[in-house]
Amino acid sequence: MRFSTLVCKNLLRRPTRSLLTMTGIAVGIAAVVALSGIAWGFQKSWEQAYTARGTDMIVTKVTSRDPLPSPFGESIKDDLRQLPHVQGVSGLLSDMVSIEDAPSVLVFGWERNGFLWAHLKLVQGRWPADDQEKTVVVGTLAIEMLRKSIGDTLHIENDDFTICGTFNSGALVENGTVIMTLRQMQRVMDDEGKVNFLNLKLTPGTTDRETEALRQTIKTRFPGYNAFTGGEVAQNNTAIQAAKAMSWATSFIALVVGAVGVANTMLMSVFERIHEIGILLAIGWKRSRIVRLIIYESMALSLVGGLVGIVLGDVAVRLLLVTPWIRGKIQGEVNLPLLGLALLIALGLGVLGGLYPAYRGSRLHPSEALRYE
Amino acid sequence: MTPSAPTPPLAPDPPGSDSGPGVLIEVHNVTRHFEAGRVRALDGVTFMLREREFVAVIGPSGSGKTTLLQMLGALDAPTSGDISFHGQSVQAIRDLSAFRARTIGFIFQSFHLLPTLTALENVQIPMFEMPWKAPERRRRAAELLQAVGLGGRLDHRPAQLSGGERQRVAVARSLANEPRLLLADEPTGNLDSASARCILDLLGAIHQQHGTSLVVVTHNPEVAACADRTLRMLDGRVVSDTLNQGGRT
Question: Is the model's pTM score more than 0.80?
């Protein structure tokens, strides 16, 4: 007989109780996987937005960690273009704008000849013809949300724009946006000659070290400005941070409930087995072995519960993503690191829930425990 | 065979090993008080147990027999006095669990088997404290159960066994780690006379063939008659210590 056989037999002694405890853990872990999966997906879709645009580095004004920094003069663009490894610079101006019945839509103004347009796929219509034309292209999600179609007028700020096309982006978040040329955006926002992001495309083969050196050069040469990679901008985005914090807070509550369930089960199991623990101590089992037995039982409960929770969480995310009123609006990111983290959390809960019962079990006096019936 | 490998169960000692019994345990003026001294379970007990000796401890209920057995098995510590094992004070032993696992075998009146485990698994439980691998534990447990006549009951759980069979499993378990000393607390107390006779024969065989020292607490005169010596206890004291006819000492 192996030690693990004993662990399993003890857990199977009360199958219903073990099952209920595992269910508690499974629900907690499923909450972690599902909520974190969606929060990570949110971050991932922002990261993808930068990657898809071909942006290697973003230069912005050092202000708060607001997702949309204040506009600044685009005059430094030419200076940036002179720096080593910089292949192209493309400015953009963005803002959250109330468009007709929609309270807040992300509107971009992109340089008409910049490299940002390259990754968009035109679904219907055409692109804006020139900087003077008061037209916009609308993402597939945004056009659905705004209940518009090609040729309709969009009232943005104090001006009317005609929808000339719809597009699809590899980055989910961009499908909910409206894009016009930078000049039109500067005009309508009253921000002539200003951008709030400068997207840098670096020469292929630029190493991480060279990228870091470039970042330092930008910080030194252009005081008040900072340079980030797309991933960093996404990570520092307050909206993403809020989504992640909420997912963790909700998960934490679910996990506490799970841990209390495990501790309760193991404590009951120890109290039920005082006499048996007395036998084990009498025949020479070390107290450390009693501790191991109880902790392993607790960890086994949590491990199985955790594995079930991971499957449940993954299925929940997949179901959410295909639900009609959610489909296309959010992105799930259930990846290996998240699953590994969930499993570690489950094991941690097992250890945590088993510690006190194990301590109680190991402190029993053999002769007293033997008398206990 | 590795140095830690167990010898076959119930095997006779090698020739020439019987060079005369030495002192195994010395109990010197041991007291054990409970409830702040209001209950004196043991009150100045002194005696000596030699190697290979079979001692019966008899006396009325509450005379301190079980408490004495727990002291000998290092399950409880004396309030005063000293118990030494091969000249070393038991109280001074740092790892009492290891001492119990490797030196003492316990047999209880209520068998004290783990209900969820089979006979084979129950016998393996003490072996976790020995450096033996799982197949070795299994093989040895099967041999022990074979030796106590339960070769056909390996996979039965305690609830599927008769009282006598359960006690035989308990005897096999007590021998798991080849103890120097077997302590049995009323081993026939819960058995019918036929099963009691069987257990008694089994203990006698272990004692005779393997030379294991044996202390048996009993109310059963038949058990006491098999012993080399009988200690009679009353009110926490040893009131008589007699050699039985045909005893070894």
Answer: no
Tens-digit pLDDT profile for residues A69-105: 788 988 888 899 999 999 999 999 999 888 887 778 8
| Chain-chain contact of A279 with B129 (C-beta, under 8 angstroms) | no
Dist. CA A250–CA A245, nearest whole Å: 9
CA distance B163 to chain A (A): 18
Distance CA B75, CA B96 (A): 9
- Identify all chain A residues contacting B128, using CB atoms and an 8 Å cutoff: 3, 285, 289
- Residue after which a domain boundary falls, among A206, A228, A250: A228
Nearest CA in chain A to B95: A286
Residue A176 and residue A81 share a domain: yes
CA-angle at B105, arms to B104 and B107, nearest 5°: 140
Residue A292 C-alpha, separation from nearest chain B C-alpha, in angstroms: 12
Q: What is the ipTM of this complex?
A: 0.85
Q: Which of A3, A12, A279 sits opposite B128 (nearest CB)?
A: A3
C-alpha torsion angle, residues A274, A280, A282, A284 (rounded to 10): -150
- With an 8 Å Cβ cutoff, are B75 and A9 in contact? no
For the sheet with B39-50, list strands across it.
B39-50, B23-34, B80-85, B88-89
Reported as a single tens digit per residue, the pLDDT across B12-29 is 444 434 445 688 999 999
Q: How many residues does chain B have?
A: 249
Q: Which two tokens stand for residue A94?
A: 């963005």
Task: Classify residue A39: in a domain, yes or no.
Answer: yes
Could you list the residue range(s) of the whole structural domain that residue A308 is in? 3-46+240-371
The amino acid that residue A366 corresponds to is P
Nearest to B116 among A10, A284, A367 (CB): A10
Inter-residue contact B238 to B232 (CB < 8 Å):
yes
Homologous superfamily in CATH for domain B53-75+95-243: P-loop containing nucleotide triphosphate hydrolases (3.40.50.300)
CB contact at 8 A, B62 and B46: no
